[in-house]
């Protein structure tokens, strides 16, 4: 009995670390930097990265931190489905702003379209949230890995394995059910293929 508790505790610690590394705010930031480095000049890369950080990532981080600290939401990940319903309008507004800014300032088509398809994925997930709290961790990871697969099969396979690890971590931490993981993963795959 004690051995299984120790094993369970270790698995949860591993899952927790993977979940932090696989958090959408982290994976998106890292992906934008790497993708930009590989395909665009430094000015475009830094500009896109700073825009995403300042318009989406920083406001969401501050919002979630403040709300979780003050008890408005249960935790930073907004793991409660009803609480998450209040996150989506704010997130969608920020994504609409960044998509519009990138379009207006003529950012490279692949970056603008990628952001646009991510926006559409979040829009779908906000509608699904009325019935099911689809995993944003899984959706973001699989969205990114589909984009990576388009440019590099070896790197894409690594990204797919990482995405499965992220999905597994959310199950181990009991933040999502299997159906919520499947819904998030399917959304990420669909819109990642379109993006």
Question: What descriptors fit this protein?
Answer:
0% strand; globular; 195 residues
Helix/strand layout:
Elements: H1 2-21, H2 24-39, H3 42-69, H4 81-104, H5 109-128, H6 136-151, H7 153-172, H8 178-194
Helix pairs in contact: 1-7, 2-3, 2-6, 3-4, 4-5, 5-6, 5-8, 6-7, 6-8
Protein architecture, described:
This protein has 195 residues and is mostly helical. It has one domain. The chain is 83% helix and 0% strand. It is built from eight helices and no strands. Helix 5 packs antiparallel against helix 8 and helix 6 packs parallel to helix 8. The longest helix is centred in the N-terminal third of the chain and has 28 residues, at 42-69. The relative contact order is 0.13.
The main β sheet shows up as: none
Spans of at least 5 consecutive residues with low confidence:
none
Strand and helix order: HHHHHHHH
Q: What structural category arises from helix and sheet content? A: mainly alpha
Helix content: over 70%
Oligomer: single chain
Question: What would you report as the Rg, rounded to the nearest angstrom?
Answer: 17 Å
Our count of domains comes out at: 1
Mean pLDDT: 92
Distance between the termini: 48 Å
Query: What global shape is seen?
Result: globular
Per DSSP, the total helix count is 8
Strand content: under 5%
The strand count comes to: 0
């Amino acid at each position: 009995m004690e051995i299984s508790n120790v094993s369970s505790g270790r698995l949860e610690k591993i899952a927790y670390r993977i979940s932090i590394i696989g958090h959408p705010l982290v994976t998106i930031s890292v992906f934008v930097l790497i993708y930009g480095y590989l395909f665009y000049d430094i000015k475009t890369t830094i500009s896109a990265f700073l825009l995403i950080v300042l318009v989406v990532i920083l406001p969401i981080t501050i919002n979630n931190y403040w709300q979780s600290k003050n008890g408005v939401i249960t935790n930073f990940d907004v793991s409660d489905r009803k609480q998450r319903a209040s996150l989506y309008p704010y997130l969608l507004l920020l994504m609409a702003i960044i998509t519009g800014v990138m379009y207006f300032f003529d950012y490279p088509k692949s970056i603008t379209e990628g952001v646009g398809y991510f926006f559409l994925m979040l829009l779908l997930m906000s509608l699904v949230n009325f019935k099911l709290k689809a995993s944003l961790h899984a959706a973001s990871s699989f969205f990114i890995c589909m984009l990576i697969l388009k440019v590099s099969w070896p790197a894409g396979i690594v990204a797919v394995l990482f995405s499965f690890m992220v999905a597994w971590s959310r199950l181990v931490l009991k933040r999502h059910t299997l159906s919520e993981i499947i819904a998030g993963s399917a959304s990420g795959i669909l819109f990642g293929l379109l993006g």
